[in-house]
């Protein structure tokens, strides 16, 4: 912003009118800024930035879309373009994102692939597969998170939302764990792809609390297997 420079030059004795004329704006614009140096937009941006930093600190795997959804869930009105501008200024990106010019590469999976595309199970609660999909409806797109028991091919947990909010996958997992709350989950392997919602700290901690072992495959491992027919 050029206005602070005008103020500094004025303190050194350079007339405001001269500086404004040379820099190409009016004295009225300068004095308006001088009366209120921080605009409401600047205050709002600062508040959004602080909340975005807190959201990203909770789960560094979250990228732009998830941060935007979290801000809206907290009642803060903002567009994705505005969030992108603020996050870019603070260098808030997903730990697993690939950013041109920053030498970033997708991070390694935080869990081993214990399934290796062998989608079979000797009994219930031995292998669950989790994924996200979306469906077009008359009112717009609807996002669906679901968890499938491989043995029965039954959807044991699911959640639907009109936005791709960060806790959508966790809600589906909570439903699955609650549905099997009276059953033994100590031998359960939970398999997913490398989507950020499944690599988040909260999701990993919830699996550990349930006694399940996490397994992570390559992108699309969960989705392109025929188990998704059970969710159709």
Entry summary:
The chain has nine helices and five strands. It has helices at residues 3-11, 16-23, 27-35, 40-58, 64-73, 80-90, 168-179, 196-199, 201-210, and strands at 127-137, 140-149, 154-161, 189-192, 213-216.
Overview of the structural elements:
The protein contains 9 helices and 5 strands, in the order ααααααβββαβααβ. With 232 residues, the protein is α/β, with parallel strands linked by helices. The chain folds into 3 domains: 33 residues; 51 residues; 105 residues, Nucleotidyltransferase, domain 5 (2-Layer Sandwich), CATH 3.30.420.10. Strand 2 and strand 3 form a beta hairpin. The radius of gyration is 25 Å and the shape is elongated. The C terminus is likely disordered.
| H/E element sequence | HHHHHHEEEHEHHE
Structural class category = alpha/beta
CATH architecture of the largest domain: 2-Layer Sandwich
Low-confidence stretches: 98-108, 223-232
Relevant CATH superfamily of the largest domain:
Ribonuclease H-like superfamily/Ribonuclease H
- The CATH class name of the largest domain reads Alpha Beta
Largest sheet, strands/sense/barrel: 5 strands, mixed
- What value does the Rg take, in angstroms? 25 Å
Q: Which strand order spans the largest sheet, edge to edge or round the barrel? A: 3-2-1-4-5
Strand content: 15-25%
């Amino acid at each position: 912003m050029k206005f602070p420079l005008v103020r500094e030059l004025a303190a050194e004795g350079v007339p405001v009118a001269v500086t404004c004329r040379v820099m190409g704006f009016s004295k009225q614009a300068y004095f308006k800024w001088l009366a209120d140096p921080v605009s409401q937009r600047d205050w709002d941006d600062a508040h959004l930035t602080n909340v975005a930093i807190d959201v990203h600190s909770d789960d560094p795997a979250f990228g732009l879309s998830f941060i935007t959804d979290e801000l809206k869930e907290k009642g803060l009105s903002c567009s994705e373009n505005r969030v992108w501008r603020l996050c870019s200024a603070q260098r808030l990106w997903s730990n697993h994102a690939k950013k041109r010019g920053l030498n970033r590469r997708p991070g390694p999976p935080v869990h081993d692939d214990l399934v290796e595309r062998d989608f079979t199970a000797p009994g219930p609660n031995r292998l669950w597969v989790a994924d996200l999909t979306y469906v077009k409806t008359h009112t717009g797109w609807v996002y669906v998170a679901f968890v499938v028991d491989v043995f029965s091919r039954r959807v044991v947990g699911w959640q639907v939302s009109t936005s791709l909010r960060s806790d959508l996958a966790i809600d589906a997992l909570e439903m699955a764990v609650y549905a099997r709350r009276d059953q033994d989950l100590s031998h359960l392997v939970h398999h997913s792809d490398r989507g950020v919602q499944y690599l988040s700290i909260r999701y990993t901690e919830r699996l550990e609390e349930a006694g399940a072992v996490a397994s992570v495959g390559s992108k699309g491992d969960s989705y392109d297997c025929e188990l998704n027919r059970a969710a159709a």
